[in-house]
Amino acid sequence: MTIKTLSKISLVLAALASLSACGNTIRGIGQDTANTVNATEAAGRDVARAAQ
């Protein structure tokens, strides 16, 4: 991917995150972030197990 493509994707993701944050409270954003971290960690464990 080129830098131009990556920057466009980043801008879209940032816009989506900003729009979704408008509909949530600070507590909800914290829960969403925690869920994202948990899902990322689980995916990492799955990849690690598959690599063994």
List keywords for this structure.
52 residues; mainly alpha; 2 helices; 0% strand; signal; Entericidin B
Q: How would you describe this structure to a colleague?
A:
This protein is mostly helical. It is 88% helix and 0% strand. Residues 1-23 form the signal peptide. This is Entericidin B. Keywords: Signal.
Q: SSE order in H/E notation?
A: HH
- Helix residue percentage: over 70%
User: Mind describing the biggest β-sheet?
Assistant: none
Radius of gyration: 15 Å
Q: What global shape is seen?
A: flat
Number of DSSP-assigned strands: 0
Oligomer: single chain
Provide the β-strand percentage band.
Answer: under 5%
Between the first and last Cα atoms, what is the distance in angstroms? 29 Å
Mean pLDDT: 83
Helix/strand structural class: mainly alpha
Low-confidence stretches: none
The total count of helices amounts to: 2
Protein name: Entericidin B
Organism: Mycoplana azooxidifex
Signal peptide: 1-23
Keywords: Signal
Q: What's the helix and strand layout?
A:
Blueprint: H1 3-22, H2 26-51
Q: TL;DR of this structure?
A:
This protein is an all-alpha fold and 52 residues long. Helix content is 88%, strand content 0%.
